[in-house]
Structures are given as structure tokens and as C-alpha cells.
Amino acid sequence: MTISVAHKTIENAAHDLQEKWHAPFFLYDLDALKRHLASMTVPKGIRLFYAVKANPLSAILKEIHQAGLRFDVASLGEMRQVLAQGVDANNLINTGPAKSANQIEQMLQAGVRCFVAESRQQLSLLNKLADDLAVGQLDILLRLQTPGPDQDCDTSERFDPLAMASVFGQTIDEWSAENLEDYPALKVIGCHCFQWSNLLSVDDLLAHWKHIIPVMKQLSQNLDFDLKVVDFGGGVGVPYDKGHAAFDWQDFCAQLGTIKDTLPGSEIWMELGRYAVANCGAYYNPVIERKSNWGQTQLVMAGGVNHLMRPPLSGQAFPATMVQESFERPSEFEEMDVYGPLCTGLDKLGRFSLPRTIKTGDWLRFDMVGAYGFTEGMPFFLCHTLPGEAVYQNQQCTPLRHPEEADSWLK
After folding, report:
1. Crossing angle for the helix pair 101-110 and 76-83, nearest 10 degrees?
2. Against a cut of 0.90, is the pTM above it?
3. Rounded Cα gap, residues 373 and 368, in angstroms
4. pLDDT tens digit string along 225-251?
């Protein structure tokens, strides 16, 4: 049973959790999430999905469902978590490069009827199982792999479109060798193509879209199906660095008309993850030790990449600040390297400008972790404490997961 406690501000709630738990935790601002989702209006003919991989927390899924988004699930676990929130299976699309017969069968039994096919094998499995289970025709999107446009992209992550494309979907030549009549239990309704990440420029995002639209049209002609749906995936970014400007959603919507003009009769789908939820989450982490090596100040934290795996994966840190009382205004700052507790040099959360007075027992707050936080980490390595999770809404703080010691899950 969870118990909500009233707090005037989310800062008060975080302070209370620090005092009670003495261990790292995630805190999600559902009021901020609701406001952000309300601002994500789109023109007619655009359908938004939420990529559950960004954060599958039940409270977040409920807010997204209430906002009217559909769901992109890539595993049985994600599907079950979404359905457990009262979402109808017709509002799900199954994506992902790996689809076993068992996964497809269980999704069909749960009522999922829309799938992204990444290969001939997936087409064959989907066709066979739909026929065996007599569920009627399935809606299918063929995932395309194509090189990106020749341009520099305004992205706050390391970006290699060819590397990202290497395993997802198939090329137009591979797909064009298919005969859709071989799959009578499937109805191909469009194409899916997504091989970019965390783009902050509207022009760069739309350049990718404009680049692949002719390829999608060509495939629909080659295989003789109507391009009713064009799924551009996600890729809308958030600024992890203060030097980057935020993605301009209003400008994006204003320019969508030019894209729609090139796709008469097609509905555009987007599968947003990071952009939908990143801003609603923060990760609180206590300082265990401060020391210096080779003239560089180092902080060792209670939590590291076991809780936040994104920094070593992307080469970019979540923004971090020292948690302090409002009346404290430090005037001197210093560049400090921040590490986690794991026995590997990979466990580095980043380099940050922090108050010179920071010491053991102080806390850092990492922002923008509403996406790619808890479920992207490697929490069981070295058997450290699992982080807690709590939500804040209407001045109420509700713990959902208390920090857990390893003896609660070790066998």
C-alpha cells in the first residue's frame, strides 16, 4: 500500500524523501507532465504514440493515456504494463527488431492487431499466427532502412544514421522482393522509418522526413499497397546541455502542412518517448566521498550508471545541480568529475560545475530523467541498493517503489 503525504512544493517532497530513504531515488512531477502533454497539440491527420521504452511507470502511462496518446510497445512486459492501466489493446502498436513466435502469439491473444514488420521472417510469423488463431487480418507497417540525408544535424547526441539503421527493418530492395499475396492474413497499411535520435532542430527532423517519403512511396508502388500510414517514429529531442535550444513544437506543427501536402491520403504517425516525458523526472543522489586526483576534484556518489545508463551510452550527461536550501547562494563553483559506486571506470555520470563547498552527505539532482532513467540502468550489478521512485501531483507525494537492498531480490 502506498501512502501520499502533502507537501507545499516538490522541493519539500524531495527533501522529505532524502531524510526518509538516505538512498538515491527518482521523483516525477505529474503536474508538469500533464501541462506538457496538453501543449503537444498536432494538426489533423497526425497521430501521436508514446514509446513506452522511455519510461513504463504506471503513473506516467496513466497520464499519457488520459492525454489521448496511443502506445508503442516493444516487449510483452511493456504490453502488459500498458494494458494494466486500462488501455484498450487497439491503441497499441508492436515495434522492435525482435519478435518471437511466443511474443506475437501472446500479443494477438491480448488483442493487439497492429505490428511493425522488420523482416520476411516477421511477416511469415505474423501471417501464420494470425491464421492459426483466426484473429482476422492484421495491420502491418513495413520498416524501411535507408541512409540519412547528407547534412549536419543539430542533435545533442552522437549521431550516426547508418549505425542506427544497421539492424532495423530492411532496405527497399530487400522488401521489394516480397509478394504480399503470400501473406493473406496481413494487410500492409504503410511504412515505418526511424533512424535518428534526439534532434533539436525542426528543419533537421523534417529533412529526414522529406528524404524518406519518396522511398516509402516507391515501396508502396513496388509492392502495390496503399500508403495509408507513414510512421516517422520519434527522434524529437530535449536539450541536455544549456547551450542547446529546445525543440520548437509550435514551429514544427506549423511546418507539418508542407509534409502533408506531399502525402495526400496518408496519416502521419509519431512515436514520441523522450520528448513526452524527459522534463517531468529528476534523480536525487547523495555524495559518498569527495577527493582529488591529478588536480581534478572527484565526487563518488551512491548511485551511478547502475541507475542512469544513458551517460556512457550517449557520451552526454544528464544536467546536474547541487540540492540546497533556497537561502544558500554559493558564489564559487568548480568543475568536478562525478562517478558512481561501481568497480569500473565506465561508471561516470559526467563533469559538472558545482559549488566548491560540496561535501559528503550533500545531494545532487539530475534533471531530464523522466526518460531513460530507472529502466535503462543496470541496477543489479554489484548488488547495490535499487533506487526508489515517487510521484508528485497536486501537492501530494506518493512513494511507488522504496529503495531495496540486494537481499530482497538475490537468490
Report:
1. 10
2. yes
3. 9
4. 999 999 999 889 999 988 889 999 999
Burial class of residue 267, CB neighbours in 10 A (0-12, 13-18, 19+): middle
CATH number for the segment(s) 31-272: 3.20.20.10
| Domain spans of the chain, in order of start | 5-27+279-405, 31-272
Which residues fall within 8 angstroms of residue 267, CB to CB, at 6 or more apart? 45, 46, 47, 228, 229, 230
Q: Residue for cell digits 561508471?
A: 347
pLDDT tens, position by position, 104-147: 999 999 999 999 999 999 999 999 999 999 999 999 999 998 87
Q: How far apart are CA 56 and CA 375, in angstroms?
A: 8
Q: What is the CATH number of domain 5-27+279-405?
A: 2.40.37.10
Q: Is 231 exposed, middle or buried (0-12, 13-18, 19+ CB in 10 A)?
A: buried
Residue 255, C-alpha cell as written in the block: 511546418
What is the per-residue pLDDT across 298-332, written as a single tens digit (0 to 9) for each?
999 999 999 999 999 888 899 999 997 544 666 78
